[in-house]
From TrEMBL, chain A:
It comes from Filobacillus milosensis. This is Recombination protein RecR. CDD domains: TOPRIM_recR (cd01025). Belongs to the RecR family. GO terms for biological process: DNA recombination; DNA repair. One of its GO terms (molecular function) is zinc ion binding. Residues 80-175 form the Toprim domain. Keywords: DNA damage, DNA recombination, DNA repair, Metal-binding, Zinc, Zinc-finger. NCBIfam families: recR. A zinc finger (C4-type) spans 57-72. Transmembrane segments: none annotated.
From TrEMBL, chain B:
InterPro entries: DNA-binding_RecF, DNA-binding_RecF_CS, P-loop_NTPase, RecF/RecN/SMC_N, RecF_2. HAMAP family: RecF. Pfam families: SMC_N. This is DNA replication and repair protein RecF. It comes from the Bacteria. The RecF protein is involved in DNA metabolism; it is required for DNA replication and normal SOS inducibility. RecF binds preferentially to single-stranded, linear DNA. It also seems to bind ATP. The keyword DNA damage applies. GO terms for molecular function: ATP binding; single-stranded DNA binding. ATP binds at residues 30-37. The lineage of its organism: Bacteria, Bacillati, Bacillota, Bacilli, Bacillales. It is found in: Cytoplasm.
Length: 198, 372
């Protein structure tokens, strides 16, 4: 099908988003054409600003508009506990529960030799540095309950163990930002059984 | 258990087909390339969500169709359960009692199926992979948790092998991550091996007398599990774990040099002996066929022992290939208790009283017609 170039470009942009195929992209593109110009401008601005104004916290790796982030900066929070997660979305999910008063460390991924991701490719080195500088008593490993998440947790545990810091593993039901593949994966139904020492 | 009815939509060469089956024997007669194997495959897929002849789900969807669907009702423990498997370019869905099951291990086992097709001779003649697939499928359909361990094992194995390849290139790299994967691998490997040992003991128990029967008392069947570690079959997973740990410790450097995992259930094999001779190497065609048949018949009994009901038996193109004696041995064993599907190009090759009571269907270009 032939579309005028501006539309083609818009369609092409939409298909870069996850879960959007060519058909949906065309539908969205034509929807945008029918939107009010102000709304479209706001939309475009939000996109650009989200990208420009958000950075990663230099302490914990969480997404933030100021550095260090509000959580790291909050002196009411317990700095002796760090919860290690794979994805910023995991922090947001944990914060919704409102139970947790410690701090976080966001790895931005999990170790996977298959995908060429080693410990240095995610925020493991910065975690190790942090443990040297800060007074941390407990590390909660809340990586995803799949093979890669488990392996990452076990790896960190092996590195940190000699320091004497208490290490626990939290098992959530479904991984928050995780991919649940149909065929071979069964998430461990250990949801919220509490933390176990590693 | 038995399938009461089956509905195929855009599946292989079927447009839309609904069939009601007989509780006992169903014979499907048709020329070549009319859809006999496709029908057997559909029943198999309804049980396993996977085909027995292709790993590519896309092939199951009728050419040019957007999706393909298999629906069936299975009567099990006096309950009629609707099952459904749908394939589309978005992947597949399996529904048990209209509810989508997200995990394979929650769906498999809803319906038990044993298939015997000419390619099952490969069970004896073929590669170790064929035999591992046989054990895994059979344990999986009676113990869904086994599928979970197998899935995890395969995933860890891939990661571990990728890491070993990296270490092979950088021999001085830190091996902490390798130890992590070894631990993870062993956790599942020891459970898999324990379950395989248990399965094998049951398989032997059933297969040996059956084989003796089919061979008119002339042949004694033995089955060995050829494990990549040295461990006896009657130990539990804890003991197996210890043996794996020692072994992996011992071969770490060798694994790094080779860049791959050298030990584990993915390296194991089954060895069949008839009268103490390896059937794969020395057995005649007939002996190999008898061995495959004994294993399949043993599977039927084994599933009955585990599940409390007989599985559904699919005989694709094999009945007419068996000599009269083997044919009637098979049909006598299943008579009256196992719902069986038999495909053939001609009913002439099958002379047994069970056939006279069977429901007969003819098939032509993906259209199934009930004859009586
Ligand atoms: N995805 C598909 N869409 C449409 N037709 C298909 C598809 N896959 C296979 N077929 C066709 O289905 C036909 C029947 O195949 P099937 O294997 O069931 O034959 P059969 O009756 O078992 O024959 P034989 O006696 O030779 O074993 C083949 O001609 C094949 O081309
Ligand atoms: Mg066929
Ligand atoms: Zn922070």
């Amino acid at each position: 099908m032939y579309y005028p170039e501006p539309i083609s470009k818009l369609v092409d942009s939409f298909t870069k988003l996850p879960g959007i195929g060519p058909k949906t992209a065309v539908r969205l593109a034509f929807f945008v054409l029918d939107m009010k110009e102000d709304d479209v401008l706001d939309f475009a601005k939000s996109l650009v600003n989200a990208k420009r104004e958000l950075t990663h916290c230099s302490v914990c790796g969480h997404i933030t508009d100021k550095d260090p982030c509000r959580i790291c900066d909050d002196s009411d929070r317990d700095g002796s506990i760090i919860c290690v997660v794979q994805d910023p979305r995991d922090v947001i999910a944990m914060e919704k529960m409102k139970d947790y008063r410690g701090k976080y460390h966001v790895l931005h991924g999990a170790i996977s030799p298959m995908d060429g991701i080693g410990p240095e490719d995610i925020n493991v080195p910065s975690l190790i540095e942090r443990l040297k500088d800060e007074e941390v008593e407990e590390l909660i490993l809340a990586t995803n309950p799949n093979v890669e998440g488990e392996a990452t947790a076990m790896y960190i545990s092996r590195l940190v163990k000699p320091s004497g810091i208490r290490i626990t593993r939290i098992a959530h039901g479904l991984p928050v930002g995780g991919d649940l593949e149909y065929a071979d994966e069964v998430t461990l139904s250990k949801a919220l059984e509490g933390r176990r020492d590693l | 258990m038995y399938i009461e009815e089956l509905t195929l939509t855009n599946y292989r060469n079927y447009d839309k087909q609904k069939v009601v089956f007989d509780k006992k024997i169903n014979v499907i007669i048709g020329e070549n390339a009319q859809g006999k194997t496709n029908l057997m495959e559909a029943i198999y897929v309804l049980a396993f969500t996977k085909s027995h002849r292709t790993p590519r789900d896309k092939e199951l969807i009728k050419w040019d169709a957007e999706y393909g669907k298999i629906e069936g009702r299975v009567l099990k423990r006096n309950q009629s359960i609707p099952l459904e498997v749908i394939f589309s370019n978005k992947g597949k869905k399996a529904k048990f009692n209209h509810i989508e099951q997200k995990r394979l291990s929650e769906y498999i086992g809803a319906m038990n199926v044993v298939m015997f097709a000419p390619e099952d001779l490969n069970l004896v003649k073929g590669s170790p992979q064929e035999r591992r697939k046989f054990i895994d499928m059979e344990i999986g359909q009676t113990q869904p948790v086994y599928i979970y361990h197998l899935g995890q094992y395969q995933r860890i194995l891939k990661e571990r092998n990728a890491l070993l390849k990296d270490l092979q290139r950088k021999p001085n790299a830190d091996s902490t991550m390798l130890k992590v994967y070894t631990d993870q691998l062993i956790e599942h490997a020891s459970i898999i091996l324990e379950r395989r040992f248990q399965f094998l003991q049951k398989l032997r128990k059933w297969a040996q007398p059956i084989h003796q029967g089919i061979s008119r008392g002339n042949e004694q069947l033995n089955i060995d599990y050829d494990a990549s570690i040295d461990v006896s079959e009657d130990v539990n997973s804890e003991k197996i774990r210890i043996v794996y740990e020692e072994h992996f410790n011992h071969i770490e450097q060798k694994e790094i040099d080779r860049g791959t995992t050298l030990v584990g259930p993915h390296r194991d094999d089954l060895i069949f002996y008839v009268n103490d001779k390896n059937v794969q190497t020395y057995g005649s065609q007939g002996q190999q066929r008898t061995t495959a048949l004994s294993l399949k018949l043993a599977e039927i009994e084994l599933i009955f022992e585990e599940v409390g009901e007989y599985p559904i038996l699919l005989l694709d193109d094999v009945l007419s290939e068996l000599d009269d004696y083997r044919q009637s041995h098979l049909l006598n064993t299943i008579q009256g208790k196992v719902q069986t599907f038999v495909t053939t190009t001609s009913i002439d090759g099958i002379a047994h009283e069970t056939i006279s009571e069977a429901e007969i269907f003819t098939i032509h270009e993906g259209q199934l017609v009930e004859e009586r």
